[in-house]
Design brief:
The complex is a heterodimer.
Chain A (H helix, E strand, L loop, with lengths): L14 H9 L4 E2 L2 H10 L15 E4 L2 E11 L4 H9 L1 H12 L5 H4 L12 H18 L8 H16 L9 E2 H13 L4 H10 L6 E6 L2 E6 L1 H15 L16 H17 L3 H14 L6 H21 L4 E2 H8 L5 H10 L3 E7 H10 L2
Antiparallel strand pairs in A: 1-8, 2-3, 3-7, 3-8, 4-6, 5-6
Helix pairs in contact in A: 2-15, 4-12, 6-11, 6-13, 6-15, 10-11, 10-12, 11-12
Chain B lengths: L17 E2 L2 E2 L7 H8 L5 H27 L14 H8 L17 H15 L3 E4 L9 H9 L13 H7 L6 E4 L5 H9 L29 H13 L10 H16 L4 E3 H10 L6 H6 L10 E5 L8 E5 L1 H14 L1
Antiparallel strand pairs in B: 1-2, 3-4, 5-7, 6-7
Helix pairs in contact in B: 1-8, 1-12, 2-8, 4-8, 9-12
Classes of the chains: A alpha+beta, B mainly alpha.
């Protein structure tokens, strides 16, 4: 059911593309202050929010013009989609050139091929979900802390303490891996379940199992190790940021993750598409936990919805009332949108309800 | 995985590989479609116990077989190839509860009850055998199988008579459960983890290391993991009609049915979204679309713009194995 597409058009969810084509030019950006205003006041589950209804919301406290909210994956991602569409072959060659000099890459990335050009949006969305949950927790908005990301940090840390050579990209002999697997299984996490990811998409998987003359070895993804190094450097330097109070990592990892995703996007904006892709693959590879359903509502389903529609169909922005209705997350949606907006991952617009209604009527 | 003529497991190496007149397994006929239809997106914790235990059953068996391959004269298949009561205790704690305000003392814990469910299914289906020592079949195995067939596991007080209880009672003598090698699982292990056929100097299915890891395996899909997920879903929260992922199964069936009833390999994207919405899962439509990137056993979808459509329309192209899964299931239902 759609709150914005009416009548028979409710049976045409793919009119989302045409609708934005019609109204996009009349959209206004919601700035961070407006986003904060809505975030502070939004209450209840997303499907019951006062702001994202079929009647629309007032544009501002002192402006009763009815508007609909629209969100899209940030335009900063556009160069990635453009490059995929227009320059795939060269991009793949550039990525392979760059990766060849990286320590541990010859074994881990042997024979990867076209998978380099596929971002694992679902895993990235989970990472973003965990980071968003963590940031919202530090704002005092909810109690969920984004524990998936924290557990991933603990996993890699524990691995590094047990087998220091892992951080150098050295393979782990099977016997040692089995010992580690038993330890983590006893702590409710089976690393072998993550090995399967490498069979599907190696650039974004944490480990790859390789048979060698002296036995089977488990190789960590060099990009995950690089991401871990970046996280450590960033964590150590956190005190230098705006004189922030140094906090324990469980309260802070969301901001670190978002900052590193932002750095990938800075590379993208500078035209370094290869660096962007490798950084994002690393972010995904580092994330080994997928347990907390509540985080998935924010991350997996919202972000993957925006990203996949953009990648596969070029959908610009989607109306928030429909997203709010279908997502039915207990998190206050405006707060989530505000965190994602602040983190520069989404663009947030409003369009006057009158304009949207007229455009909807015109759609065949 | 069993040859119907000889009633013996097929050789490793796939359907192109012939040993003594018997062909290897044609995974594309039934088993890959089965994976495509049954792989679900459920959070890791939900399925953890089932995946973990199944994974250990297969990993331990594989490791021991590799040992045997390397040293054929060594008797390598013993309790180390299976799961013991100690293994389960190490991972999931004691089998009985302490007295708390939630339950009395000595009740079976949920983890052990779930493990028992998994083992019951596997034993009933001849996937595993119950041993009282390294290589001696437990004398209670037949009685347990008969009890299972009479529906006794559903009755209160089953646990002291069940598989886990036997594992506990025989733990000192090496009691364990392990995969039934005669049921074809050895072939699958070799096809999934071992060398594919056609490599000079390497026997198809060899579990020895040194084979290029980027080579395509004979069976690329983790059948055992999908099986464990399927069993976990069926068991759900332990009560009838409370299975996990039921909604996703309905959605998949409906998508495949629509394709079979129409163009055969595609459905309109609008219908794809509406099917998800009809089952209150509209929020999952896009992540499901992309799930095959991180999970090879998930159905793969592709999008195709309908030429000349205005406003634009799209079709979802379905993977042939996925449609085949539904066709096979419908044939069985008939």
């Amino acid at each position: 059911m759609s709150r914005v597409l009416r009548g028979s058009k409710r049976k045409r969810p793919t009119l989302d593309y045409a609708l934005w084509e019609e109204v996009g030019s009349k959209a206004s950006l919601v700035n961070k202050e407006q986003g904060k205003f809505l975030a502070d006041r939004d209450r209840g589950a997303s499907s019951r929010s006062n702001y994202f209804t079929k009647e629309g919301r007032n544009r501002a406290a002192n402006d009763p013009t009815k508007v609909y909210d629209f969100v899209s994956l940030s335009k900063s991602f556009d160069p990635w989609f453009d490059e995929l569409r227009l320059n795939r072959t060269n991009l793949l060659a550039d990525i392979e050139d760059k990766i060849v000099g990286m320590r541990g890459s010859q074994v881990y990335f042997h024979g990867v091929g076209e998978d380099w050009l596929e971002l694992d949006w679902n895993t990235l969305a989970r990472v973003i979900g965990a980071a968003t949950a963590n940031i919202g927790n530090s704002e005092g908005w909810w109690s969920i802390k984004g524990s998936d990301a924290h557990k991933s940090l603990q996993f890699w840390g524990e691995l590094d303490r047990n087998i220091p050579r892992v951080s150098d990209g050295m393979g782990i002999p099977e016997s040692k891996w089995e010992n580690i697997a038993v330890y983590f299984r006893e702590h409710n996490f089976d690393p072998n379940s993550e090995i399967l990811r490498a069979f599907s998409h190696r650039p974004s998987a944490p480990f790859w199992k390789v048979g060698e003359d002296d036995g089977v070895r488990y190789y960590p993804n060099p990009l995950a190790l690089l991401h871990r190094k970046r996280l450590k450097v960033l964590y150590k330097s956190q005190a230098e940021w705006n004189e922030d109070v140094v906090e324990e990592i469980s309260k802070f990892h969301g901001k670190l993750t978002m900052k590193l995703i932002n750095r990938a996007m800075v590379s993208l904006s500078r035209g370094d598409i290869v660096d962007f892709a490798l950084r994002i693959h690393g972010v995904c590879a580092f994330h080994v936990m997928r347990t907390v359903v509540t985080q998935q509502k924010i991350g997996l389903h919202l972000i993957s919805n925006l990203a996949i529609r953009k990648q596969t169909r070029g959908v610009g922005a989607q109306n928030v009332p429909d997203i709010a209705y279908h997502l039915a997350t207990a998190f206050h949606l405006a707060k989530i949108l505000h965190i994602l907006q602040r983190s520069k991952l989404i663009d947030w617009y409003t369009v006057e309800k009158e304009v949207v209604d007229a455009a909807t009527d015109l759609l065949a | 995985m069993i040859d119907p003529v000889t009633d013996l497991p097929r050789p490793a190496g796939g359907s192109e590989h012939l040993v003594d007149g018997v062909r290897g397994v044609d995974y594309s006929a039934q088993l890959i479609p089965w994976c495509k239809g049954n792989s679900v997106s459920v959070d890791q914790n939900t399925l953890q116990l089932y995946r973990t235990l199944m994974s250990i059953l297969f990993e331990n068996y594989r490791i021991r077989w590799r040992w045997v391959d390397a040293r054929p004269k060594v008797k390598g298949i013993d309790s180390r190839a299976g799961i013991t009561a100690e293994d389960i205790t190490r991972m999931y704690g004691k089998h009985a509860t302490n007295r708390t305000r939630y339950h009395g003392a000595g009740e079976p814990t949920r983890n052990w009850t779930n493990a028992e469910f998994l083992f019951i299914y596997l034993l009933q289906g001849r996937h595993i055998r119950l041993y009282s020592s390294d290589n001696k079949i437990n004398s209670e195995e037949q009685r347990i199988i008969q009890d299972i067939e009479m529906g006794k596991p559903g009755e209160p007080g089953w646990m002291p008579n069940g598989i886990c209880a036997q594992l506990g009672r025989t733990s000192d003598s090496g009691g364990h459960i392990r995969l039934n090698g005669n049921y074809g699982w050895e072939t699958y292990i070799r096809d999934h983890y071992g060398a594919p056929s056609g490599i000079d100097g390497v026997i198809a299915g060899s579990l020895q290391s040194g084979v290029d890891s980027s080579l395509k395996r004979t069976m690329e899909y983790p059948l055992h993991i999908v099986l464990s997920e399927t069993l976990a879903r069926a068991h759900g929260h332990g009560s009838r009609g409370n299975e996990w992922g039921k909604n996703q199964s309905r959605i998949r069936r409906e998508i495949a049915d629509m394709a079979i009833g129409g163009d055969g390999d595609r459905i309109p994207l609008d219908d794809y979204y509406l099917i998800f919405a009809k089952h209150s899962a509209a929020h999952m439509a896009d992540s499901s679309f992309h799930r095959s990137v991180s999970d090879k056993s998930a159905a793969r979808y592709e999008l195709e713009e309908v030429a000349g459509s205005n406003p634009k329309r799209w079709n979802v192209l379905l993977e042939p194995e996925f449609v085949r899964w539904r066709e096979l299931r419908r044939e069985r239902e008939r």
